[in-house]
Specification:
- By secondary structure, this protein is α/β, with parallel strands linked by helices.
- It folds into 2 domains: about 210 residues, DHBP synthase (Alpha-Beta Complex); about 100 residues, Rossmann fold (3-Layer(aba) Sandwich).
- The chain is built from 11 helices and 16 strands.
- The site of magnesium ion has 3 residues, from loops.
Length: about 350
């Protein structure tokens, strides 16, 4: 189906009502959340969920997150809740945390890609919450990019990828966080982080006493082993340009980059490195601000594409706190291509 895609200010009640009417009529709508924009549809309507997979070109074995606006909405979606679920919900919802929980029979198989678990989160963006409440539906929403591309953090990015493919984009401004929610699996003995985000492993450990980080978070998946989260084995976050993660002391990288001056070769470096960078570059924000890196990463990858970059050398953030989330997205954008310049 082709649409003439409209972009409306999500701050207007009228726009939210129009979006709710579309959702209730079985249409998809792009919505802002505090993490990234989502391509939303009634989670309990298999037909429209199937269209979401189609629109994004998303592999059918990659399950979706169901977005709710009230804690009571969990009951209908889930089976018996693991001990820590309500604790985490009370602490971090609404906010950038997704919990993997046993699923109920009400959730269509297509949403969970046939798994017996369901991913649920309560976003904190006021437009997302208002829409879920007005529509009276829980919403399945993957990030609103074409599958494999950097996730969208502005309404413009969504338009770039989905113009003509959805009837409506609600503009809620640039996303606060900039990377997707933390995904934590609560169905095993120990809470397991499948995807890092703004809610950090330390914060989850402080609530539940223990946490493990799935090895797939920072390592290339071994094709011979089963994966905990189906999403990790697919290509993700890739701009059109090739990305290489460039680690090591900046002085060494500077010397290396001086030998890389060619058309289409760009840097994505920390603010402090901009001045001395021997190739054209965009800033990922101050070295010490992982929050800035999170907010800027996807935006910069899209900007570098627009500027005609063919090859991007990107500096990696520290792998702790929200920096772990940024590093996780960056090494995937780079297809796990990381170079360390030692001397
Ligand atoms: O911040 C976010 O989470 C954004 C906004 C729109 O809410 N959504 C998002 O959705 O990032 P998506 O579809 O791009 O990523 C969902 C992730 C995938 O890695 C998927 O494999 C995982 O959640 N996931 C979903 N259901 C799962 C399940 N039952 N078990 C394990 N992983 C699951
Ligand atoms: Mg995504």
């Amino acid at each position: 189906m082709r649409y003439s895609t409209r972009v409306l200010d999500g701050g207007s009640d009228q726009a939210v009502s129009q979006a709710a009417a579309l959702l209730c009529a079985g249409e998809p709508v792009v919505i802002p959340t505090e993490t990234v924009y989502g391509l939303a549809a009634d989670a309990l309507d298999e037909r429209v969920v199937a269209r979401i997979f189609e629109v994004k070109g998303r592999p059918a074995d990659n399950p979706l997150i169901v977005h709710i606006a009230r804690l009571e909405e969990l009951d209908a979606l889930t089976g018996e809740l693991p001990g820590g679920a309500i604790k985490l919900a009370k602490k971090f919802w609404p906010g950038p945390l997704t919990m993997i929980l046993p699923k109920s029979g009400a959730v269509p198989e297509i949403v969970t890609a046939g798994l017996d678990t369901v991913a649920v989160r309560m976003p904190s963006h006021p437009v997302a919450l208002a829409l879920i409440r007005t529509a009276g539906r829980v919403l399945a929403a993957p990030s609103a990019n074409l599958s494999g591309r950097p996730s969208p953090t502005t309404a413009d990015h969504c338009f770039e990828d989905l113009n003509g493919l959805v009837p409506l984009i609600l503009d809620g401004g640039p996303c606060d966080v900039g990377v997707e929610s933390t995904v934590v699996d609560l169905t095993g003995d120990i809470p397991r982080i499948l995807r890092p985000g703004a809610v950090t492993p330390a914060q989850i450990k402080a609530e539940l006493g223990s946490v493990v980080i799935d090895p797939a978070v920072c390592n290339q998946p071994d094709p011979s082993l089963p994966v905990a989260s189906p999403g990790v084995k697919h290509t993700h976050y890739r701009p059109k340009a090739e990305v290489v993660v460039l680690s090591g002391r900046w002085e060494n990288c500077e010397r290396f980059l001086a030998g890389q001056r060619r058309d289409g070769v760009w840097g994505l470096v920390f603010e402090q490195e901009m001045q001395s960078c021997p190739i054209p570059a965009l800033s990922l924000g101050p070295r010490e601000s992982a929050q800035a890196h999170a907010k800027l990463l996807f935006l910069r990858l899209r900007q570098l594409d627009d500027m005609g970059a063919k090859l991007i050398y990107a500096r990696p953030p520290e792998q702790d706190g929200i920096g772990l989330a940024v590093y996780n997205r960056l090494i995937r954008a780079a297809g796990f291509n990381e170079m360390t310049i030692d001397g």
